[in-house]
Amino acid sequence: MLKNKIQFLLNDRLISLSDINPNTSILQYLRSCTGKSGTKEGCASGDCGACTVVTVEYAGGDLRYKSLNACISLLPSLHGKQLLTVEDLQDGDKLHPVQKAMVDFHGSQCGFCTPGFIMSLFALHKNNPEPEKAQTLEALAGNLCRCTGYRAIIDAASAAKNHGPDQFDRNKRNTIAALAKIQKTSLLKLSEGDQVAYSPSSLSELTDLMLAHPNARIIAGGTDIVLEITQMMKSLGTIIYVGNVPELQEFEESDAQFTLGAALPFSDFTPSIATHYHEFGEMIERIGSLQIRNQGTLGGNIGNASPIADTPPVLIALDAKLNLRLGNKNRIISIEDYFIDYKKTSQQKSEFIQSIIIPKAKENSYLKVYKISKRFDDDISAVLAAFNLVIEDDVVKSVRIAFGGMAGTPKRAIKCEKELIGKPWTQASIENGMQALEQDFTPMSDVRASANYRMVVAKNLLQKAFIEITQPTINTGVVQYA
Question: What is the rounded distance in angstroms from the CA atom of residue 283 to the CA atom of residue 458?
Fold first, then answer.
């Protein structure tokens, strides 16, 4: 049954929305429709964190708190969740312990960024009452401050550890009951004029919608596509929000492979992937901020077809497969065959990515992943390299190498691979492979890097992989995992 409204909790108040533009961001809604102006707009692109809010979902028998960027999150994504803002944290006339710590340790100066910092710390402490410093830094990496400096804020985060129950803990049972009353098994529609968003609750509903609306824009996290609204002042037309489709949220692990639903957020699957592919996991932790990874998805990172997307080169090197669905039929293709040209893919009209299949490592295999960007955290790659090798008795038995930022698509280095396969794992072979990269790629110059820089870096990353594999005790990074 189609329902022409979405429902969510704004703190403890049930909100029902129907006649509202689905292109409206959570930030716009809060500031323009509710009078909650504590949440700020700094960048409108998910970079600065001034707009950070927290959503709460009931999953796995407990409430899960997630920080996200309200400036690039659309209203349809709120259905069935609780939305918390900085105004909700004060308990009567008492500041929340996180707020009080920011005051006590002088963590605010002009105050513009402070609500975002507080909400990031709030989510951190709700999920982990005693976070380690590295976890605190990860939680705050997506929040920028131009005047206070970060030491006072980090001190405040430490002081707020293990602060005991707050009003959200006391109201937990009521929150779970209120969320349970919101129907999440119906097809939803939110519209105003010719701007329409559908939110299917099953794979079959999604399939039917895609057949009926072949030009619809699919959104899961929306961390890239929503910039068309906030930066380019466009409207997305017909939107299909897939965050409520259970089949696209699945995660399965077998002896041979991982299968990830296309709409599963990065933060949900990264710990599992990292146990098997450590460097892949560490690279994912450099995709945007925690707020971005709480929303962004592997399916979106692939489907956007950007030549500088971070995960496709790694997935190509791992020989991952895509499970594509059109109508009631599925087809499985190599991810390498998905990318045709700049921003063009082999995906057909009404077809969508249902899941991604990642093989597990073979014996004697090495996966090396390197991301080169101007900033270490929360930045776009100039070059991303992935090397997947099987080496036995100092001979390269298998090799797959892929790069991002070196061509109009994420692309394998076929000529380089031919110089390595079946050859001794020696410096001479590496030098031949480095020269072959000039036949594989003709990179371009842009604001992130020159063509010459990209080629030199690509060659040096192959050399870096050789050094790290042959001499694992040598630290070649500016930090332990760069």
Answer: 17
Percent of the chain with pLDDT over 90: 91
- Residue 479: predicted pLDDT: 63
The one-character DSSP state at 230 is H
Question: CATH assignment of 2-87+173-241, given 3.40.50.880, 3.10.20.30, 1.10.10.1100, 3.90.1230.10?
Answer: 3.10.20.30
Tokens of 364: 């004697």
Q: Which CATH superfamily is domain 92-165 in?
A: [2Fe-2S]-binding domain (1.10.150.120)
Nearest to 294 by CA among 46, 30, 10: 46
Which top CATH class is 365-470? alpha beta
- Would you put residue 44 in left (φ > 0), alpha (ψ -120 to 50) or beta? left
Mean pLDDT of 399-425: 98
Three-class DSSP category at 83: strand
> Nearest 5°: phi and psi at 276?
-105, -40
Give the pLDDT of residue 482. Answer: 47
Flag whether the pTM goes above 0.90: yes
Report whether pLDDT(296) > 50.
yes
Res. 85: pLDDT tops 60 = yes
The structural architecture, per CATH, of the domain 254-359 is 2-Layer Sandwich (3.30)
